[in-house]
Amino acid sequence: xxxxxxxxxxxxxxxxxxxxxxxxxxxxxxxxxxxxxxxxxxxxxxxxxxxxxxxxxxxxxxxxxxxxxxxxxxxxxxxxxxxxxxxxxxxxxxxxxxxxxxxxxxxxxxxxxxxxxxxxxxxxxxxxxxxxxxxxxxxxxxxxxxxxxxxxxxxxxxxxxxxxxxxxxxxxxxxxxxxxxxxxxxxxxxxxxxxxxxxxxxxxxxxxxxxxxxxxxxxxxxxxxxxxxxxxxxxxxxxxxxxxxxxxxxxxxxxxxxxxxxxxxxxxxxxxxxxxxxxxxxxxxxxxxxxxxxxxxxxxxxxxxxxxxxxxxxxxxxxxxxxxxxxxx
Length: 329
Hints:
Order of helices and strands: HEEHEEHHEHHEEEEEHEHEHE
Largest sheet: 5 strands, mixed
């Protein structure tokens, strides 16, 4: 593959689109490197943005970086490039997650350009959804999106959904009893208090949505809520519509694939008119994570639980400028 000349303004635009991806607590744990001589954009994980208590194996960090990698692919195709991705290209460097070059196969689009408008529209919604049920054909499309990234999306039946919701509520009890976890979450909260420095990461108070009037919805009640006592309370949907993303393996490569599938599903759902949020609470506890899977499914490991429905789409959260996440080499 001959090198593709990548002007810096073009790469800047690609990375601007890529970093719209979701990440745990909006930590944005990615770093890009442009290798001008080879026409390669490298994706690296940023260990300084890891969460040792909630994500000790860095699985969630890989998911966020995989989502950013998928956004880079979408942005490249939108601009007439043909991205070719190699995952984990440097065995000696586990934080070197991917190399992307831009002379791939002519027919490798897989509909990526159609997803580009959703990059700027996709936002996490922590607001109540309506009880309107999602048509089966939309779930079929989301399942197909996961398959394109070598992953599986499971829409649970009643007993499985009840099990997952039970794990969500159990994880809330675990979290409430673990001071280290609460402190880690609080570190990524941005309440807008005068003593806080301006930040382009973390979760701002306006993105939290209302408090839950009851306990039916899988929306995390973040630490530091005592400083946000003015939030109103609302009832959430009685029967949340959820879906589980998983893979057969539980390896860094599988996590990166799952991150790409996660973003593909979220973008497709956005185009389908759905509001979305992610919940990882029960997957952050080893003693709960295995119970989230359907024992009759081929999915061996669950990496993310989606909450989907009709309702407010949420507001954009801050992103670090490209100058902070892109290096030239």
